[in-house]
Design goal:
four-stranded mixed sheet, 2 domains, alpha+beta
């Protein structure tokens, strides 16, 4: 009887010791896993995603969006000059023009109008002197084509016509004006007196 009781006590103690050891191992493994996850999260926060993944996202942002069939994309703006809206229209006072009548010694010669696509430089760009750009009081939504005319010192005129699009406005006029000046400078043999005479539209 005593032998049976002693064996039962020894077995129960051994079973409890083994259970405690297994529980401790299980808790230690959880701690290691937690420590590993915390270390992984800290490393992810410190270093961020791999550089290759960042490159892919950057390339995706820079890649042009696919153009839908039938959609129209406006040409890029060539000039960097941002022109403000013109001041409120006020007519000049009546009377004689302050510069007097325009008298020329010979007839003005108007060259063949040149129709060019906006954004395509047909003439070499002339670094002309800075001048006061005209103000345009136009309804831009009704404009279909713009014609600018530059004139040289002999009175010869060089018209340039360009098509417009929805969104065409004051900023784009700088490019059309410059195209007329470039044509005047090149086709007049480099006349430095070329100036912008007028711009019109229909």
């Amino acid at each position: 009887m005593k032998l049976t009781l002693s064996a039962a006590v020894v077995l129960s103690v051994a079973w409890m010791t083994g259970s405690a050891a297994r529980a401790e191992e299980h808790r230690g493994g959880d701690r290691r896993d937690d420590h590993h996850e915390e270390h992984h999260e800290e490393r992810h926060e410190d270093h961020g995603p791999p550089p290759r993944q960042e490159m892919r996202h950057e390339e995706m942002r820079q890649a042009p969006a696919p153009q839908q069939p039938g959609s129209f994309r406006a040409p890029p703006v060539r000039s960097t000059e941002r022109r403000p809206e013109p001041p409120r229209w006020q007519p000049h006072p009546g009377g004689v023009h302050p510069h007097g009548p325009m008298v020329r010694q010979h007839s003005v010669r108007v060259l063949r109008p040149a129709h060019v696509n906006y954004g395509a430089r047909q003439w070499r760009h002339w670094e002309h002197p800075v001048f006061a750009r005209p103000h345009y009081y136009w309804e831009w939504s009704d404009v279909h084509q713009v014609t600018c005319v530059a004139e040289d010192s002999y009175g010869d005129q060089y018209p340039v016509t360009e098509d417009t699009w929805r969104g065409f406005g004051m900023t784009n006029m700088t490019d059309v004006e410059d195209d007329a000046l470039d044509r005047c400078y090149q086709e007049s043999g480099g006349d430095p007196s070329c100036y912008l005479a007028t711009c019109s539209h229909y």
